[in-house]
Design brief:
alpha/beta; globular
Length: about 140
């Protein structure tokens, strides 16, 4: 029996405003149903704007780390190609609306279509399954 494949994604950004902030890192790992890693995508992106202080504190990524990184329009085709390698795999992300919003905005800026994928939000799942926790932050889960 084959196990379903899922792709966990995480983005790092210059800040929290999808209209003015930019993606600085895309990370994704494809897993099978047993948790075995099937593929990995990790790339830094040049945001063409400085990192915010809070974003640096959260991600540890500094402007100097991004100085030689390619633009989103150069990285996104590779990321979409990675996703196409697992055509039926849904995406999972913690606070998925945040990542989806930023990814959608970067794709729109680059004139690229948003992939048609099911998306599962681990934050919503954790809040539903573990309602009595004080915090549902990923690092605490």
């Amino acid at each position: 029996m084959s196990h379903p494949i899922v792709i966990a994604i995480d983005l790092e950004t210059t800040g929290l405003d999808v209209a003015s902030d930019r993606v600085v890192e895309i990370g994704a790992i494809a897993f099978d149903g047993n948790g075995a890693e099937l593929g990995r995508f990790e790339r830094l992106l040049q945001p063409e704007r400085p990192m915010g202080a809070t974003a640096i504190a959260v991600s540890g990524i500094r402007d100097a780390d991004l100085a030689d990184a390619p633009l989103a329009a150069e990285v996104l085709p590779d990321f979409l190609g990675f996703l196409e390698g697992f055509p039926d795999a849904p995406l999972i992300a913690h606070n998925a609306a945040f990542d989806a919003g930023f990814l959608g905005m970067e794709l729109a800026r680059a004139g690229m279509a948003i992939p048609d994928r099911r998306v599962f939000d681990t934050l919503a799942l954790a809040r539903s399954a573990l309602p009595d926790l004080r915090s549902h932050r990923l690092d605490l889960l």
